[in-house]
Design goal:
The protein has 345 residues and is an alpha/beta fold. Helices cover 37% and strands 18% of the residues.
Length: 345
Amino acid sequence: MAGCGHCLRASKRKWTNVVDLYQPQVGRAELPLLSICQAALERRKTAAQTHILILHDTMGEMAVSQAEDSDCTARVHTVEVCALDRIGHVDVLLALAMGFDHVLLQKLVAPETMAIQHQEVEMARAMGGNGRLDLFGSVHRLAEILQALPEITGPWRHDFPVVAASRRATARSCAAVLLPTALAPVPLPADAPYGTVQLDESACTMCQSCVWLCPTDALSIGEHKSELLFVESSCIQCGMCRSICPEDALQLMPRLDPLPRADARKVLHKAEPFHCTSCGEPFVAKSMMDRLLARIWGGRGVQASEEVLQLIALCSACQTQEIQEPQYRRQPSAVQFRSEARRRQ
Ligand code: SF4
Ligand code: SF4
């Protein structure tokens, strides 16, 4: 750095905040750094100068105050956080998308929190924070990082992210702002709560077990119960669908697609529909019906009378009518189905 540094130090401005993450505050409970980031963005838009956010707890206070006196030309904003282990990738991404050029995070030392912090940091880097997020564990390391940071003199270059009601949606919005040229989904570390599922279509029988178990409705059933639908932005990669699938047809793939297409409900699998033997309406996947009938005719633990066999092949409306009106006239197709069932038995 050119010059003695004193003039630079004199022109440097610092802000300090204390954030209590356990204190519920309207509008800040979900995003405790939001108001700090909003204020930083206003400052950054008018000052073509590097803005740095340092997040630390009471243990790191001394280190931060010493490092602040280094000959760094940036504007440094220090925030003391009551529970540093609760600072996640969402908070970091919000800061990087709203007013801060760099985020420096105090390293946690307890083994049980260190691994979680490492995972959150890796996720934030993969979602657009790469090269703009560092961990520090000592005064020396913090001073080193501050000295090495590139000086930014241009205007703020990011669009304004959508601050959504949920942390998850806000993280996705920030990633879209931070990765404006990402046309393809970016891979994320294992166990990241964003991603897609890969389906082996030849193995899927449309049994719907995965749909019933999916906690976020990322999986759903489409038209005629013969389509398996999926919304990538809703998938939290919990793996429940994979564990319940009797055909081992699903695999998880952690990744982030920052484009709006991730919000679309796409067809994961389209199976041939089975038509109601009475009214002719498609109402279930043929593979599912074949499987059920194979179990009945194969005598594998499922037994059914002729009447039940006939009901199985009816859609719910026709089933209801059949049950309520015993004299309901059988359609020729229903008789055909019954004969076929008898023949196979
Ligand atoms: S991984 Fe979880 S959230 Fe994603 S589709 Fe499967 S069950 Fe649903
Ligand atoms: S993916 Fe597996 S659980 Fe889901 S419908 Fe297909 S076979 Fe059933």
